[in-house]
Amino acid sequence: MVDIGFDIIGDLNLEPEDSFDWEGKPTSLYCIIAGNISNDLRTIYQTLSHLNKFYQGILYIPGLLEYKGHDYDVRTKEISVLCKKLPKVALLYQHVVIIDGIAIVGANCYNADNPDDIDSELVRHRLNDIAYLNKSVSKLQTHLDVKKIIIVTSCIPRRQLYFGKIPDHVEDHIYPDYCLMSDTEMKITHWIFGGVESFTDTVIGAVKYINNPYYKKRPYWPKRFIV
Questions:
Q1: What pTM was estimated for this model as a whole?
Q2: Are residues 14 and 42 in contact, defined by beta-carbon separation less than 8 angstroms?
Q3: pLDDT, tens only, 11-26
């Protein structure tokens, strides 16, 4: 396998009036966006269209921000339609991308850190996404062309990544890292995530967990990692 580099972008949280310029910043052929571009559909499209100029491939999973105030199923279809208009953008929702033996598996998993966001619909979609990750990882164990797996979620994947500051109301939640139990061949090497303002680049077990939140902090650059 040849090493492949990826740029991480996450938690842009852009408003329609915000500017976003990525000219001269890319460091890799591929970009992973770990959710929360904007709540505004036109802003999502403009941002992806802008990034489409600089990368050979963009791997995108929407975050909770994209869904706030919208019907979950309707918004998913809207985002899917706009991504299909951009030839280099791959929407990771229910779709695994394989690049030179590396499988990229993504799911929103719906951030539950804010109790005001939690309702029956969020919990249902969160559990469905966690189940999808588990099923996908399990299937990829026997996929002979897949040597490594990158997981992408728009929320924090495991309790340890709160570093002792886990909110009381989410203590008993099921977390996306449930899928690690299905990684019997130890193919998962990296987990890219969003949904938190603090920066993380750490190894737990055999998996490297990385994020690169923007939250309108300047200067902002891509976080590059190599698989």
A1: 0.96
A2: no
A3: 999 999 999 999 999 9
